[in-house]
């Protein structure tokens, strides 16, 4: 039986005590240009790409009809008492999204930057389909316990990249997707009124290279009231997508984009089933929160499939549904739930609510390099009354720039209902609320 995230009883709102000043040794994004006029184009490939790899297929290892550990650890059943994300449009900028039955009637075409004549609802790589499933798959067939975080939300499918399609660019082999098409896709999603934009792809480049198009696009999207949720990036098998380890700032040559554009992006790290940072999650002072990133279940990514999968075959390699790519959509789903429940909050306020209601591990009070402010807490994000909403000005978040300590000891007692810990957090909030009211009575 899976050991679920053992954080019950230590849940608390992040109420930091001091302002963080970025250490000069860490790269910070340069000033942003707001002009996105050149990015407002109809979706189309920048060159003609040719498919040179077979499409992925889903696989099952064990039982996929059980409730996923991430679903239980986040207490999604408790969260859905407050809504299912109805009316929210979530853009998935990825490898496309196949028309799976569990997304029926809620999948909208957003455009294709890989193949001419396609509309974004073709996914040879399977990655975007699995991401979309974690966000919004329903359980209409009632044959399994799996369900997306926001099963009432709509998905806007934008196919921006593919490892299965390639071309020669200036005499150099290249895969479909670059910073220009990513920036165009972000602007298109924002102009399509997507309230949430999920980007589960990371490119690592030198900070000096600036990525001006993507910077402009993410700033534009936030100004258009879209919340961008981005994967932090993975470190695997000694190769790390060319990103340096931020715990050794003297070795940083590249940074993950768009993850490090922290002012405009909600960056998500990955947790394992013990509640510790997954061994592959790429850290950095820009990581905001974390979510389940290992042993996930989602939609079978094969085109025409109707079932579920917890593995997929890409070429001759078998992969699990693991990575910050699959942690980010949990947070995107929670953002959709929050936006449905609090339609008056703007994008920046929603991002702040997600961070302030995250669960901090025992013994930690500062922002952690790998999990940010902690594990996203859907119930708290949907029910908490933040101090500023009661007329109290909270102090700015404290962000740690020190090396990460070893993960806290794991409580192996199964966490089957996270409402225990959430109740503690809400009790603390109630006390805060009463204290504020008492203060106001004394003032009058």
Automatic annotation (TrEMBL):
Membrane topology: Single-pass membrane protein
PROSITE patterns registered for this protein in UniProt: SUBTILASE, SUBTILASE_ASP, SUBTILASE_HIS, SUBTILASE_SER
Compartments, record wording: Cell membrane
GO CC terms, sorted: plasma membrane
Gene Ontology MF terms in the entry: serine-type endopeptidase activity
Protein's GO biological process: proteolysis
Transmembrane segments: 415-436
Gene3D superfamilies the UniProt entry points to: Peptidase S8/S53 domain (3.40.50.200)
Active site (catalytic residues): 94 (charge relay system), 127 (charge relay system), 325 (charge relay system)
Assigned keywords, A-Z: Cell membrane, Hydrolase, Membrane, Protease, Serine protease, Transmembrane, Transmembrane helix
Peptidase S8/S53 domain span: 85-374
Homology family: Belongs to the peptidase S8 family.
NCBIfam families documented for this protein: T7SS_mycosin
Name by which UniProt lists this protein: Membrane-anchored mycosin MYCP
Organism in which the protein naturally occurs: Allokutzneria albata (Kibdelosporangium albatum)
């Amino acid at each position: 039986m899976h050991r679920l995230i053992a954080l019950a009883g230590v849940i608390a709102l992040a109420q930091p005590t001091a302002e963080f000043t970025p250490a000069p040794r860490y790269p910070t994004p340069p000033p942003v240009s707001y002009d996105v006029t050149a990015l407002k184009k109809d979706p189309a490939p920048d060159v003609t790409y040719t498919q040179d790899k077979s499409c992925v297929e889903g696989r099952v290892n064990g039982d996929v009809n059980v409730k996923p550990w991430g679903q239980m650890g986040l207490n999604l059943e408790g969260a859905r008492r407050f809504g299912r994300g109805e009316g929210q449009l979530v853009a998935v900028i990825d490898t496309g999204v196949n028309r799976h039955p569990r997304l029926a009637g809620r999948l909208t075409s957003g455009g294709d930057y890989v193949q001419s004549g396609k509309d974004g609802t073709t996914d040879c790589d399977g990655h975007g389909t699995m991401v979309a499933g974690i966000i919004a798959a329903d359980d209409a067939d009632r044959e399994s316990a799996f369900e997306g975080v926001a099963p009432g939300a709509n998905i806007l499918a934008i196919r921006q990249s593919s490892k299965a399609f390639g071309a020669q660019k200036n005499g150099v082999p290249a895969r479909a997707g670059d910073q220009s098409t990513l920036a165009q896709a972000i602007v298109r999603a924002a102009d399509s009124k997507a309230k949430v934009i999920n980007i589960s792809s990371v490119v690592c480049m030198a900070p000096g290279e600036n990525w001006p198009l993507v910077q402009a696009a993410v700033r534009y999207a936030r100004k258009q009231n879209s919340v961008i949720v981005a994967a932090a990036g993975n470190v695997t098998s000694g190769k790390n997508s060319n990103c340096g380890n931020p715990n050794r700032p003297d070795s940083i040559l590249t940074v993950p984009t768009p993850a490090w554009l922290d002012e405009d992006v909600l960056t998500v790290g990955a947790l394992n089933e013990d509640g510790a940072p997954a061994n592959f999650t790429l850290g950095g002072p820009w990581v905001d929160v974390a979510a389940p990133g290992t042993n996930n279940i989602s939609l079978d990514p094969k085109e025409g499939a109707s079932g579920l999968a917890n593995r997929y075959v890409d070429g001759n390699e078998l992969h699990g549904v693991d990575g910050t790519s699959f942690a980010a959509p949990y947070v995107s789903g929670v953002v959709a739930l929050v936006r449905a429940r609090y339609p008056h909050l703007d994008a920046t306020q929603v991002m702040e609510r997600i961070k302030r209601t995250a669960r901090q591990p025992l013994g930690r009070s500062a922002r952690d390099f790998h999990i940010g402010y902690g594990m996203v807490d859907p119930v708290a994000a949907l029910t908490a009354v933040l101090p500023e909403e009661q007329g109290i000005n909270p102090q700015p978040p404290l962000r740690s720039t020190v090396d990460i300590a070893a993960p806290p000891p794991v409580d192996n007692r199964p966490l089957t209902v996270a409402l225990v810990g959430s109740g503690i957090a809400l009790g603390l909030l109630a006390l805060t609320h009463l204290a504020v009211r008492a203060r106001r009575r004394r003032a009058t």
